[in-house]
Amino acid sequence: MGKITFYEDAGFQGRRYECSSDCPNLQPYFSRCNSIRPPVLPAARATTPDYQQWMGLNDSIRSCCLIPDTSSHRLRLYEREDHKGLMAELSEDCACLQDREVRSLHVLEGCWVLYEMPTTGRQYCCGPRVQALPRLGAVDAKAGSLRRVVDLY
Fold first, then answer.
1. 13-19 β-sheet, strand order
2. Which structural domain range is residue 124 located in?
3. CA atoms within 13 A on the CB side of 82
4. Whose C-alpha in 44, 92, 97, 146 is 20 to 30 A from the C-alpha of 139?
5. What is the greatest pairwise CA distance in the chain?
6. Residue 64 within any structural domain of the chain
7. How many C-beta neighbours within 10 Å does residue 103 have?
8. Are residue 50 and residue 78 in the same domain, yes or no?
9. Given this model, what pLDDT does residue 16 score?
10. Each residue of 53-107: pLDDT tens digit?
């Protein structure tokens, strides 16, 4: 199993924290994050010396979860809490969900990233378990888009 290393400063400098398992709260370990060394990735993306240019909207990373490697992806979206009012079953990325309210979802296979806006904004990692958006920490039920975690970045 790999580990990911977070650095407070750009260029892999400053205080660091290594993580090799899920960590729902990274705030006790570092105050900001400006570079990341992830587990083994293709050589061109193996390091991230400047997190904000790569993906960050600011220097805050609050949690980290390991994502298992999988080849198939499937999830169900519901318009009401407690998995009522089935809207759709997806097996591919969905670039825009802005017209719909998604109050709960059920990941059947794979891992997904739920975005607050179309492919931008807050991101919520959704794994193979039943989830309601408030439990993910979402402010409201509006989801912007969904992407499968394959070779995301």
1. 13-19, 4-9, 35-37
2. 74-148
3. 0
4. 92
5. 49
6. no
7. 23
8. no
9. 92
10. 555 567 778 888 777 777 889 999 888 888 888 788 999 998 887 677 777 888 8
33-46 pLDDT per residue, tens: 888 887 765 433 44
> Average per-residue pLDDT in the chain?
77
Is 21 a member of any domain? yes
With beta carbons less than 8 A apart as the criterion, state whether 36 and 51 touch. yes
Q: Which amino acid is at 7?
A: Y
Q: Which two tokens stand for residue 1?
A: 């199993």
Query: CATH number for the domain including 44?
Result: 2.60.20.10
- Distance set, CA 15 to CA 5, 8, 29, 69 (Å): 10, 5, 9, 30
User: What's the rounded mean pLDDT across residues 124-138?
Assistant: 67
- Same domain for 40 and 10: yes
Chain centre distance of CA 73 = 15
The H helix count followed by the E strand count for the chain is 2, 10
45 and 9 in a common domain = yes
